[in-house]
Design brief:
Layout lengths: L11 H21 L4 H8 L3 H14 L11 E2 L6 E5 L6 E4 L3
Antiparallel strand pairs: 1-2, 2-3
Helix pairs in contact: 1-3
Length: 98
């Protein structure tokens, strides 16, 4: 598409900001959902590596250290399967010994 003379062009900074807004929105959706990161990325048509690249930037922009721990909800019942669920990750099931 050709630009007409006098039309404003979008600079690299504006493109990057728009891309960042889009990726941050996707990260928020992924972390709010129940799908694995791999499945979410496949459905959205983005590379898993790109997701983690932007996740690191997302955390830094929120004042979080990229390696900060994430709270995990743990349910515990003896002799049953226990599920550990971390936001944006797959479920991990452990067998509890009595």
């Amino acid at each position: 598409m050709a630009l007409k003379q006098g039309e404003p062009t979008e600079g690299k900074g504006q493109l990057r900001e728009r891309q960042q807004d889009k990726m941050f929105s996707l990260i928020h959706q992924c972390q709010s959902g129940k799908e694995s990161v791999k499945r979410f990325c496949t459905v959205q048509g983005i590379a898993v590596s790109a997701y983690y690249y932007w996740l690191k930037k997302y955390k830094v922009s929120r004042g979080m250290n990229a390696s900060d721990f994430v709270p995990v909800r743990i349910s515990f019942i003896m002799d049953e399967v226990t599920m550990l669920i971390a936001p944006g990750s797959t479920d991990h099931r452990l067998r509890c010994a009595a």
